[in-house]
Structures are given as C-alpha cells and as structure tokens.
Structure prediction request, 163 residues.
Amino acid sequence: MSARALRITMLVLATIGLGDASYLTYIHYAGIKPFCGTNGGGCEIVQTSVYSELAGVPVALIGLIGYVVITGSLLVRENETTRFATVAFTVVGFGFSAYLTYRELFSIHHICEYCVGSAVIVTIVMCLAVWRFLRGAPGSPGTSPAAEPAATEPAAPLGITPS
Prediction:
C-alpha cells in the first residue's frame, strides 16, 4: 500500500470515528436516547452510566477531541515526528477505549454499538499508524523496494547486458 493510500485510509477511518463521537457527544448534551440496535437499551444504559463521564467530562467528548487530534496529526505535513505523534495519539485512544470496553463488559454489563464501533476504528487506525511509522518515509532507508520509484532504464532481457 502506498504512503498516500495509507494516509487516506487512516483519514477516512478517523473521519468516521469523528462522526461517531460527534453523535454520542450530541446525544449526551441533548439528553436524547441514542438510536441503537434492538430496543436501544445497551447504548442508553452505557451512555447514562456513572462511567459515561470522567471528572465531569463526557467520555464521548473526550473521544471527539481525540479523533480531532488524530485527524489533525494526519493532515499536517508528514515527517517522522508527525508519524510518531499519530502513533502516540492512537495508542492513548486505544488504551482509553480498551478501558471503557472493559467497563462496558464487567461493570455496566451492557454494550453500546457506537462505542464498539469507535473501539474497532481506533484499533485499526492505531495498527495502521504503527505500520506507517515503522516503515518510515517513502524512499528512506529501510523501506521496501516496492515503495521505491522505478528505474528509468529498462532492465536487459535474460541477463544480457547491452554493449
């Protein structure tokens, strides 16, 4: 996958996560019931639980801010520092999401489909961010030959060298 395609994929996923977190933040502040799967029970119970806020701040808003930061790190000019920042932001998002998923499963005993969707998105973006960071900039030492630009001279057929 080219560096451009990887970055676009990550941006699309982060934008979907941004939409998810925006919706959850909206329903929190609007005080309305979330539109969720069967009976809407799981989402509503999770969204109104004691774990839906951290120090008085809705976790949906924290997720929204996280996705804005991740998206921002993908929109700035790419270099080693910005690739590392994206990894750091997504690892923090993954950790926070894992904690919240643990709370859903073992404390609240209900699942919010939107929260699961966000957890899946941030996990995929984190994996892609790590891959992007480890493979480095296109054309830098350590990148795969497929990422290198093609040679300008065609190769000689059957190992015959031109004279």
About this structure: DSSP finds five helices and two strands in the chain. The radius of gyration is 21 Å.
